[in-house]
Write a structure and sequence with these properties.
Structural class: alpha+beta
Helix content: 25-40%
Strand order of the largest sheet: 2-3-4-5-7
Largest sheet: 5 strands, mixed
Oligomer: single chain
Radius of gyration: 15 Å
């Protein structure tokens, strides 16, 4: 399926580069480490992978507005966004979200420190990527609060359960 936002990312070097690193989002790698399915039987579309073998999936029928599930290579999964635009906002604002298990600004600042030491112009690159995609950036606090709400709260996607297709076992929750 063609996704307008993924196409825009691929067509814009600034956005593609930032999402690739530090976002660890590679739309050219969509193979997950094992065969997986949704317990509901609904469609599961891989849209990108990360460097550690994790995969981002769109769940159910529809387009870019579908829930986005992230599955790591160790058997953990979490709903991380409701729609591709929300995922891209998260990856732009808090590309180190996996290091923020408590969803706090302190965790984000600590994780960001290492990235910014290596590349001081990273925030300028982030702003250029967001502008190129026409995306308004949330603050880190807003992005983490939304991640917490989506990953742990009630709402759309609460019934999304990822299964190992061969064994039928459910992936563990990445967050509390």
């Amino acid at each position: 399926m063609t996704h307008s936002l993924l196409a825009a990312v691929r067509q814009n070097a600034a956005a593609a580069d930032y999402l690739y690193w530090p976002g660890d989002f590679d739309p050219d790698r969509t193979e997950h480490v094992e065969a997986v399915v949704l317990a509901s039987g609904e469609p599961l579309e891989p849209i990108a992978g990360d460097g550690s073998g994790g995969t981002y999936f769109l769940c159910g029928e529809g387009g870019d507005e579908r829930p986005v599930l992230y599955a790591d290579s160790e058997g953990g999964a979490a709903l991380v966004a409701i729609g591709l635009p929300e995922l891209v906002r998260l990856l732009l604002a808090v590309p180190w979200w996996r290091d923020c298990r408590g969803f706090t600004a302190e965790e984000s600042a600590e994780a960001a420190e290492g990235y910014l030491e290596d590349e001081p112009g990273l925030l300028d690159e982030r702003d250029a990527a967001a502008a190129a995609l026409g995306i308004e950036l949330p603050t880190e606090e807003e992005a983490l609060a939304r991640l917490r709400e989506v990953a742990t709260g009630p709402g759309p996607g609460r019934d999304i359960v990822l299964l190992n297709a061969e064994e039928g076992t459910a992936y563990a929750a990445l967050f509390g």
